[in-house]
Write a structure and sequence with these properties.
By secondary structure, this protein is an all-alpha fold. The protein contains 13 helices and two strands; from the N terminus they run αββαααααααααααα. It has a two-stranded antiparallel ribbon. α2 (about 50-60) crosses α13, α6 crosses α7 (about 190-200) and α7 (about 190-200) packs across α11 (about 245-265). The radius of gyration is 26 Å and the shape is elongated.
Length: about 325
Amino acid sequence: MGEMTPLSPKSFEDPPSEGTVADETMALGESLPVPYVTVGDETFYEKADNRWLEMWRSIVANKAALISLFFICFLVFVAVFGPYFTPYNPIETNMANALKPPSVAHWFGTDQLGMDIFSRVIVGTRVSLTVGLLAVSIALTIGVILGSVAGYVGGLTDTIVMRAMDVMLAIPSILLAITLMAALGKGIDKAVIAIGLVSIPEYARLVRGNILSIKENDYVAAARISGNSDFRIIFWHVLPAALSVIVVRATLGISAAVLDTAALGFLGMGVQPPQAEWGDMLGRARSFIFQAPHTMIFPGLAITLTVLAFNLVGDGMRDALDPKSRIK
């Protein structure tokens, strides 16, 4: 028999733990998949796609959220392609057909100027969703940057940023939006800016709260020790761990932006005629609420269903992130 190779004492040592591997990898300046889970003194991580897969399964199991998601997809389709297939010109007036009730020729009836309400509701879908997405994009971008810097840096920077956010939160959002619109002027572009600016504090506070807890994890300390810049630590290691929470808030924020757009349009400060927008249609039809109630029912129903759909999807995503309320 041949001689047996003696075993090294290191052969009997336990394999390195997940936390050790994580710390060593972070010390080399490399990134790990997120989200991370800290247990005791060790840091573990799950595959990033697992959380999103679990979220999707929970939404599928939540019938209300799933139906709302399909409805939102339908709204997106209508916003993109609907204006090309409207049965009538949405801005063409015909006083001979003014205030006609719903019929085969005009499914939703006509307004006080004889314009087809069905065509105007379809075109208004694009306006409302566009304003909602753009306004949330502005608020999300600025709010995430301010909240991340305030939460990670702390100290005087955190105090200044958060006190400014508190001042904005002390004023009702719609009132602040009206004030900004009065200063900027009327128009859809001004509405996007106003709604986006008044929504910044919500995202800033949400991100700051998450950053304060995430930055205490061991992998953040390891990244700091390895010489990573604060910018890289915030946007490469810390912020991705809060991404799912931000996505949920953004989904709920779109519904609020659509509602604020309708409120500004109702007051005559948003989209200007003859362009179609749900809130503006409601505002101009309020004088005919008893004479021709259909002029208010259909635009109001469009606003209600859209806001409800985004809220239900947002609630479904929020429940999916909570293991206690997750639907299996």
